[in-house]
Specification:
Shape: globular
Order of helices and strands: HEHHEHHHHHEEHEHEEH
Number of helices: 11
Radius of gyration: 17 Å
Strand content: 5-15%
């Protein structure tokens, strides 16, 4: 492992199902993922194995980005996310009646979804603001960009709508070319900010999801509670 990774390792964990996203992406690119990354894809049957250190996740992303010569790997990888990549919590979100209910579950169970820096939600006028600080450290551009892109992609998957945020901010330094971020997100994207955040139109919370199922939701929530 590169020495700077050990020195700057942030605290926190991500689901192993989420980590497998990178392995699938590399295989789709024709790359033998386990050979490149030096470790097999994490198994998700063992409860302990479901929590993958974010410092190790960052190291995998850095190695893959260097090999692919793709500084936008976080942006590209996040676009391939599906609810299944968050295990049972992905299906909890999918079974909710609307986007607001899904967000409420994401806040309630965020340690199962993405246990790095906690997500905070506030209402500002007609806007919903989601924010992440650096309380648990700074995982870095690849980790953060993958996470924010994945979140936007999930909202689009679950609603079947091309949801666009009002504004996105990253606390990481600006890349050489910001345009690819503006093109995909479809809104202003700022870097070198005090916190990472997404600003939405609050009206989006009422959007229905494509596969609501109250009975299934109850069953899955019991599993998530356990």
């Amino acid at each position: 492992m590169h020495p700077t990774i050990a020195q700057q390792s942030p605290r926190g964990v991500v689901p192993s199902t989420y980590v497998r996203l990178l392995y699938e992406y590399l295989e789709h690119q024709g790359v033998a993922a386990a050979a490149l990354l030096g470790v097999a894809a994490p198994q998700t049957t063992d409860r302990d194995a479901m929590r993958y250190p974010v410092s190790a996740w960052r190291a995998l992303l850095q190695r893959a980005a260097e090999y692919l010569q793709d500084p936008l790997l976080g942006l590209h990888l996040g676009q391939t996310i599906t609810p299944a990549h968050f295990g049972v919590m992905g299906y909890v979100l999918l079974a909710c009646p609307n986007l607001g209910a899904g967000l409420a579950r994401a806040l309630q169970y965020q340690r199962l979804l993405y246990d790095v820096n906690p997500m905070r939600s506030t209402l500002e006028g007609n806007d919903l603001l989601l924010e992440w600080g650096a309380d648990q450290g700074r995982p870095g551009s690849l980790v953060d960009e993958c996470a924010i892109t994945a979140l936007l992609q999930l909202t689009r998957n679950m609603t079947g709508r091309p949801i666009v945020a009002r504004e996105i901010r990253f606390l990481n330094p600006a890349p050489t070319d910001i345009q690819p971020y503006r093109d995909w997100f479809g809104c202003p994207v700022l870097f070198d900010q005090p916190q990472t955040s997404i600003r939405f139109d609050q009206a989006l919370l009422a959007l229905p999801l494509r596969q609501p199922d109250q009975v299934l939701l109850s069953i899955l929530e019991r599993q998530a509670d356990d």
